[in-house]
Structure formats: C-alpha cells, structure tokens
Amino acid sequence: MSFLEHLYDLRTRIIRALLGIAVGIIVGLLVSQKMIGFITRPMVAALRNAHLEDKLIYTSPTGYINLIITLGVYLGLVIASPWVLYQVWLFVAPGLYRHERRAVVTFIFSSVFLFLCGIAFGYFVMLPYMLRFLISLGQQGPVTPLIAIDEYFSLILIVLLGLGVVFELPVIIFFLALFNIVTPKFLWKNFRYAVLIITILAAIITPTPDATTMLVFMAPMLLLYLLGIAVAAMVVRNKKRRAAIAGQGAN
Fold it and tell me: Of 30, 76, 194, 221, whose Cβ has the fewest other Cβ atoms within 10 Å?
C-alpha cells in the first residue's frame, strides 16, 4: 500500500471505531439504569450488615441523571472496546510477520483477561471487605452514614480501575524480560524487596487503614509477581531455544 492508501485506511479505521463507540454509548445508556443496582450491591450489603438503612442518596436534583449518563458512557466504552481493538488490529496486522501477529493477539487477550480479573477481584473480594470496615468505623462515633451515590461511584471507579491496572503486572514483566531488562533469576533474588514494595503500595492504595484489607490487596499482587517470574522464565527459555536453532542453521 502507498502512503496515501495507508492514510485512507487509517481514516476508515478511525471512523469505524468512532461509530462503534457511539453505538456502544447508546447501548450503555439504555442499560445503565439497570446496572446501577449491580454496582451499588456491595454498598447495600455493607449497610445491611451494619443494620442501617440500605439506601444511597443523591444531593442535587441532577445527581441521579448525571450518574446514569456517566455510567452509560463508561459502559459504552467497555462495550465498544473489542470493536475498537479489532479496527486497530486490521490496520497493523498487514505489516506484521506471522509470529508477530500471534504475539500481538496473545498480548491483547492476556491484557484484557487480566484487567477483567482485576475488576472482578475488586468487586467481589476487595469492595466487600473495604466497605464493611468503613461502615463499621463510622458507627463508632456519634454519626450516621448517608452515602451519596456519586461519591460512591467515584470510589469504586478508582478501586476497580486501579486493581485492573495492577493485574497487568505479568504483562509488564513479560515485556521487561523480552527486552532483557529483567531475568527470572533477578526477580527471584529480589523477591523480598518486591514484597516490601508491594506492602508499601498496598498501604498507599488501600483506602482503609485495617490490616485485613491490606493483606487481601497484597495476596493477588504477590501471586501476580510469582506468575511474572514464570512468564519471564518462559521468555528466556524461548530465547535460548531460538538462539540454539539459529546456531544450528548457521552451522
């Protein structure tokens, strides 16, 4: 393809991606009101566990409609993301070798899978522990919690997206090992320092000061680090095998 043909193809992919995002946002807006019950379930369960009224509030006349629109936009981006990634793939795939195509596909699927695992861990494990502690802490003083839905949504957005990014650790280690920046031996030798860094990171990111929530946050990070060591070992083994095959071919 000529340079102008590449530009035309790029314009086509961008337009199709934007149309997919628009359709996704429309679908997200249609289902966002039903999804509010799903995202508020951990908070409602924490309020019920504390024997409090299981209702969230909004403090402005437009608070609820703003939440519906915001949630619809986020859902639309998530819904449209496979289509957008597919358009990106159609643009870059013709310029890649077969093994590079396999590597890119593996990278995309593993990144999306780990990101979704991080969100699932945050929703089903992290949020219940965290919210239960925060509500119980508030009951110890002469106050009653009235949880605003917009502030709660901001909190879970930070927690879920943060955990989704944290779960990308094996992918990051994969690229570091691919470019010879780290090795399995280096990662294992510095495991204790990794534990220290993970502990500090968990203490900073975890929005509650209790040790239980911090340990719940640390456990998957340590497992992901160990998984990253295994991934790095696989990368090094594949490099040695290819080098051996290349040496035999040269002989």
Answer: 30
